[in-house]
Write a structure and sequence with these properties.
The chain is mainly α. The chain has helices at 8-18, 23-27, 33-40, 48-58, 77-88, 92-99, 102-106, 111-127, 134-146, 154-169, 173-184, 196-209, 213-229, 236-249, 253-270. It has three domains: 8-64, lambda repressor-like DNA-binding domains (434 Repressor (Amino-terminal Domain)), CATH 1.10.260.40; 67-150, no CATH class; 178-279, Serine Threonine Protein Phosphatase 5, Tetratricopeptide repeat (Alpha Horseshoe), CATH 1.25.40. It is globular and about 55 Å long. It holds the Pfam family HTH_3.
Length: 279
Amino acid sequence: MKRMAETLGSILKRARMARHLTQQVVADDICSQPMLSAIENGRYTPNADLLIALCQRLGIDLNSLQLADNYAVGTATQFNQTVEKLCNQHQYTDLLKFLKQDDVISAIQSDTQTQAYYYYLSVATFQASDSPDLAQIKQILKLALASAPESQSILTRLIQITLALVSALGRHADQTTKWLAKATEQIDQTPFEPNVTVIYYLSALTQFNLGQDVKSAASAARGLEVAAAHDSHYLFANVYYLLAILAHRNDQADKQQLAEQRSVTFSELFKEPVYKPDH
């Protein structure tokens, strides 16, 4: 079920060609034709205003731009598509019910699928409750790690950074530090996938919960830098919202205002729900 992540540029190019429009026509009064060409070919990342204008001209439904990859939980395509749909729509209560069905569990046939299953089960368990049982969620995440391959995959890193965040929420600083270090070890050498942005964001959120504001801001900024370099927008609204909170907490009014504006822009552009941590 794992699909190739599309870039913003490839989405724009595909929409333009489907409408039989030249680059010059699409770019008129928005940007130069060479700039549009650079965007389509992944050599330039458009800012939010430029991206909105191009999407509107091409009639692209911004709700459909979902770039982060999901992972297969079994061999049946229908099961995996359901997991993907429920995750993308943030329907975690329904996802939790779905994952507990016998036919879903019986479809799991490999260690990687087992790992993905327990990861999604932990996320659904956490998100579906107003007062999640953090100890139970940590147990589920450790079951996911028990099926992890020897190599440090992106999915394994996601599990580790989720363990770090859950540990931080439970005020277990030593465990938090351990899992945070494991999740981010040599991450800059890891081939980019859109879910790398999630790891940087959860790292920043974990450090935020530990009161490590400088480290949190650095992780958030690095995540934005890496994602932008690979033409990905995933989680930008949430990252900028976190940066706004950090700026507010440190009396940096100008940075707070700019981050808030960017968070709203990306949230409206991609219909991205924004998690608002207590501060």
